[in-house]
Amino acid sequence: VWHPPNNHVPSPNEPIGSVASLYGGCAAALKCVQEIYCTAEGMISPTPVVLTKEQEFLRVPTTDCYDRQAGVVGKCCRDPFYVDPWPSANLVNGFDDGQYKEDPRLGQYFAQKPRPARSGATRQAQVETCGVRNPNIPPRGENPLEVNFAEIPWQAMVLRDTNRSLLCGGTIVKPNAVLTAAHCVEGLDTRDILVKGGEWKLGIDEEPLPFQIVKVAAVIRHPAYTPGSLKNDLALLMLDEKLRTAKNIAPLCLPQPNQQLGGHCIATGWGKRILQLHLRGAIMRSIDVNLLDPNTCTQKLQGKYQNVLPDFSESVICANSNSDHCDVDYGSALACTNGNGQYTLAGIFSWETGCKDKEQIGGYIPPDMQWIETTCARPLRELKAIDKQYYQ
Predict the structure, then answer these.
(1) Where is this region: Disordered (predicted)?
(2) Which residues contact 73 (CB under 8 A, 6 or more apart)?
(3) On the CB side of 115, how many CA atoms lie within 13 Å of its CA?
(4) CB within 8 Å of 149: residues ≥ 6 apart
(5) N or C: which end of the chain has fewer CB within 10 A?
């Protein structure tokens, strides 16, 4: 929906800080410019733009910001010269240049090792729109597993800043909170962790709406999580600032008390090998998954996958798929719908029994809603203190 421009101009006596503080900064790939330099498509123009009434009505929604250079309130518009600072390898005919080495553990089950754990954990209603899949927004995926742009707006990516690596997937559950698998961030300094929302095609900035990269302010692991094990493998990444919701960035619905989940379920991400290589041009994928009852899962694990049993408990949701769980990412959501048009979080992808295995089983940790809601309701300063105590 188009909103009339905010043309607030500070008076000579009005301190700049008081105006600037009213507006947030612009996300990655965007710059704050005067509105007359922003096209109807939300792109920065080198010359002033004159729009017709119809173009103004149909223009891409933009966020207000403070243009310090001009001293006026402006708009966050897409920078046509923006380059994604995260390196990407371009595989040609299945071979890379040797710079990136495949992790020998790929395709095998493993649990990352040691560190201590902590404690903590009432509910509050979720208000904003959530769990809406957008299947018809171009550009489109190029094969049956690839999703279209903004189709899975709750999918996030967990990044490590110092070595510019892609760690895992994540699930946007609130504008300031991303749920992921705790083992993905084990042993890392919180200041080294970033969250990227709105990504679709890696290393190529051609999406209609920009992605956003936000610093993580605190990592809150589930109180029953034990490093080296994948039981209760959950962590909430509390963000330094809220993600700005848009068609390509929005939370997944959280389950209500006693809500029965089933219906159509999917898991999403880019895939193990893709994340490891940061493969340029790779598009987000979605696989359909079928939920297994606990007894069937236990029997299958006891028969063929006994190495997984130490991390299996009856609360874990097991699933199989006609596709490969290695085509999606740890930390991403198991999202299910009952045909109401919205998807709800059923679990977080934690482990699988091996890649390219027709009998493969994926393990998902169900969300602990009391812990999630209690954590998200606490002041950030308290959460930072809890995070700091974790390694002490």
Answers:
(1) 114-138
(2) 6, 7, 8, 9, 19, 23, 64, 65, 66, 67
(3) 22
(4) 137, 138, 139, 140, 200, 201, 207, 208, 209, 248
(5) N
pLDDT tens digits, residue range 264-286? 999 999 998 888 888 889 999 99
Instruction: Give the tens place of pLDDT for each residue, 130-141.
Output: 999 998 888 988
Domain ranges of the chain: 16-78, 155-389
Question: Could you tell me what percentage of the chain is helix, strand and coil, using 3-state DSSP and rounding each to the nearest 5?
Answer: 15, 25, 55
29, pLDDT greater than 90: no
- Lowest mean pLDDT across 74-83, 95-104, 186-195: 95-104
Report the alpha-carbon distance of residue 194 to residue 190 in Å, rounded.
9
Tokens 């408990």 found at: 313
Q: Specify the pTM.
A: 0.75
